[in-house]
Amino acid sequence: MAEESLLEGELGPTGRPLPIFPEPAPPVDGEKRAAIISMCNQKGGVGKTTTTINLGAALVETGRRVLLVDFDPQGSLSVGLGINPHTLDRSIYNLLLTREFAPEDVVRQTSTPGLDILPSNIDLSAAEVQLVSEVAREQTLTRVLAKLRNQYDFILIDCAPSLGLLTINALTASDYVVMPLELEFFALRGIALLTDTITKVQDRLNPDLEILGLLGTMYDARTIHGREVLERVVQAFGDQVFHTVIRRTVRFPETTVAGEPITSYAPSSPGADAYRQLAREVLLRVQNG
Questions:
Q1: In the chain, at which end, N or C, are there fewer CB atoms within 10 A of the end residue's CB?
Q2: What are the tens digits of pLDDT across the range 263-277?
Q3: Those residues with Cβ within 8 angstroms of residue 151's Cβ, 6 or more apart along the chain or in another chain
């Protein structure tokens, strides 16, 4: 359902009154300082990559410049934007562990103007081992992104499905973390471990890190199970849960094959509308944070 058709105070899928998110103001002119957001959940298949791509594209529609960081050795983010990770001659791995390239040499434009990507491939899996012996190993990604931060309004990091050193690097480099959560029972069990890891990063490495929100994904309102899990998530986390909920649709796998965001592949689809609403909600939370 498009947000324009909603009435103020109407109950949304989370059972709370759904606000009307205002049309985003254009970005302020002048020097940029990107808000860095990690998409994090140690469970695979919960919608991290889909959310990174489509939230980034929806933010671009509001006039923002966005950099996506593929921080998963599987390279799913790169594939989802039409890049073959097996043919890359340079990737984020080179920026983490060598001085061979400047960040600008590795950043690639996508088919969506204003949306750029730092791609990755299987080489990144070696970084986890090699970083162990590095000085200030948890701050390696922070140093890389510091050189790009003044060129973008948002930097979105697609984390690997683990809580290893790569994910710790992402959380240390970030201002915010978004936790995509598949709305099924077993997905709930890993959230406590994830929030514990975030707390440790806040205590020891990045005291400015904030949880921007939990995002319910792969929601099927037709099932009692889906509705019950969403209700439990809201009971447990309250206003930390985004009002926006991403429903299951065949469109998302199709966009991966097409190598483009849903906002351009199926711009009038409910999935595209949901990510546009999420972009507005993210902008409000970041501005008020």
A1: C
A2: 999 999 999 999 999
A3: 32, 34, 65, 67
Query: Is 0.90 surpassed by the pTM of this model?
Result: yes
Give the phi and the psi of residue 181 in degrees, each rounded to 5: -135, 115
Q: What is the mean pLDDT of residues 214-222?
A: 90
pLDDT, position 220 = 85
Query: Tell me, what amino acid is at 3?
Result: E
DSSP result, 100-134: SS-HHHH-EE-SSTTEEEE---TTHHHHHHHGGGS
Give the sign of the dihedral formed by CA 223, CA 225, CA 229, CA 232: positive
Counted residue by residue, the chain has a size of 289
Kindly state the average pLDDT of the residues 193-198: 91
- Per the rule left: phi > 0, alpha: psi between -120 and 50, beta: everything else, 114 is left
Locate tokens 């899996």: which residue? 125
Strand bridging mode 115-118 / 66-71: parallel
